[in-house]
Amino acid sequence: MHKFFTDEIDELFAYISGDDHKHLSRVLRLREGDTVLVNNLLGTDYLGIIEHIDKNTTRIELKNKMLENNESTVEITLYQGMPKAGKMDLIVQKSTELGVSRIVPVLTERVVVKNSTEFKKLDRLKRIAVEAAKQSKRSVIPVIEEPISFQDMLKDMKKSQILIVPYENQENYGFALLKKELAEIRSCGILIGPEGGFSDEEIRILEGRGAKIVTLGKRILRTETAGFTAIALTQLLYGDMGGKI
């Protein structure tokens, strides 16, 4: 069943316009009477019936509010060390599918892009997040934020219960021991280094702030792969990816 996000919604009807309307009517070729899912951009899903399609707008009659949503029980913020051009598209897309709540680019010491004004794709990344949320039937579209400094990230990390930092030089402490130490997590940040990794000083500071420095195994993962792996492990151990026990 196809899903659409819109803020043009009231108690009875939702309205789809713009590119989503074109996609609905011309690409998907949905017709009046077809059943779809509609999200109000505030985390609520509705079952709806397409009532009318005209040149510019699709009107959907809302039938039922969905009692459950497709969000995980753990709220994840991905702090991504700014990668080289092009990789953020993939990172946003796959992280959205994996269920993150926020994506925050971070200008760490070894980031190649040093000036946040060089980060000019925020609108594009937000569109990628919306499309990935549709495809994966998310109930919430992740927030994509402007790049922040490492120091600002240290302040922002306080919003979450813990900060998890995969690090190639960590040898023994990983997600298995983290699960033994913390049986339940409701919110966490995951900080991923850029292509050049973290400096020794950054790791020292993170350890001093109580971050959990973890290993992802003996193999060196690319920055995007490390993020996807850490998110998936967090969802497996603390979220909904592992199913019921």
The description of the largest β-sheet is: 7 strands, parallel
- What is CATH's topology name of the largest domain? Alpha/beta knot
Low-confidence regions: none
Task: Please tell me how large the radius of gyration is.
Answer: 20 Å
The tally of domains stands at: 2
The CATH architecture of the largest domain can be given as 3-Layer(aba) Sandwich
| Count of strand segments | 12
Mean pLDDT: 93
Q: Please work out how many helical segments DSSP would assign.
A: 7
Dominant shape = elongated
- Percent helix, as a range, is 25-40%
Order of helices and strands: EEHEEEEHEHEEHEHEHEH
% residues in beta strands: 25-35%
What's the level 1 CATH class of the largest domain?
A: Alpha Beta
**Based on helices, strands and strand pairing, what is the structural class?**
alpha/beta
Question: In CATH, what is the homologous superfamily of the largest domain?
Answer: SPOUT methyltransferase, trefoil knot domain
Q: State the separation between the terminal residues, measured CA to CA.
A: 28 Å
What does this entry look like structurally?
31% of the residues lie in helices and 25% in strands. It is elongated. The protein has 245 residues and is an alpha/beta fold. The chain has 2 domains: 3-65, Ribosomal Protein L25, Chain P; 75-238, 3-Layer(aba) Sandwich (Alpha/beta knot), CATH 3.40.1280.10. Strands 6, 7, 8, 9, 10, 11 and 12 form a 7-stranded parallel sheet that branches. α2 (87-98) runs parallel beside α3 and α2 (87-98) packs parallel to α7. The model has no long low-confidence stretch (mean pLDDT 93).
